[in-house]
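Structure first, sequence second, as always.
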């Protein structure tokens, strides 16, 4: 399953002021603000990569090569909020939007699901050969304040390491910190599709 970001988060889980407090930088000092904003984003993206979850609300596209053999499609990233649309393209290149009364969106799973509604089957047109099925979906914990504190703390740890060590780290120097990060994230880690 291929994925593409449609709409990025509108806010990060950690504010600039929180980052400054964590790094013991005076709130009024602005010399590092742009760099810190970048580090906050990098730290969020790293936590998202490790856990295979999205932290704050974002909209994504997932692309499938064909309909599943079973009764549901499992979507990536966990914390599914909604499915906006499911579109598919037939072998003539004509796009159709699948009627949302024919499927059920399940948000109560580790990873969200699109399940066939009772009495329905997957569309049976011959599909276009490249990424014929597009699912637009919204995922994430919600607003920045909804992100679990443990995930925010790991973001601060990653951000601190990157702020203090602006060069490539020497192999073996921060193994203990990486163990701590992995242990803190272990309960949140999902498997890739």
């Amino acid at each position: 399953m291929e994925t593409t970001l449609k709409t990025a988060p509108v806010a990060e889980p950690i504010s600039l002021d929180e980052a400054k407090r964590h790094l013991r930088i005076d709130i009024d000092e602005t010399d590092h603000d742009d760099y810190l904003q970048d580090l906050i984003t990098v730290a969020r993206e790293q936590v998202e990569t490790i856990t295979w979850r999205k932290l704050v609300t974002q909209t994504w596209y997932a692309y499938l090569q064909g309909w599943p053999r079973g009764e549901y499609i499992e979507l990536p990233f966990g914390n599914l909020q909604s499915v906006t649309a499911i579109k598919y393209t037939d072998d003539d290149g004509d796009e159709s939007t699948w009627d949302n009364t024919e499927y059920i969106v399940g948000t109560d799973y580790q990873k969200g699901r699109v399940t066939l509604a009772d009495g329905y089957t997957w569309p049976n047109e011959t599909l276009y050969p490249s990424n014929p099925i597009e699912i637009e979906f919204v995922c994430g914990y919600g607003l920045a304040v909804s992100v679990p504190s443990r995930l925010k703390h790991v973001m601060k740890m990653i951000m601190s390491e990157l702020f203090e060590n602006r060069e490539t780290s020497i192999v073996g120097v921060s193994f203990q910190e990486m163990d701590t990060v992995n242990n803190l994230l272990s309960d949140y880690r999902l498997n890739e599709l």
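Margin note: The CA atoms of residues 23 and 85 lie 42 Å apart.
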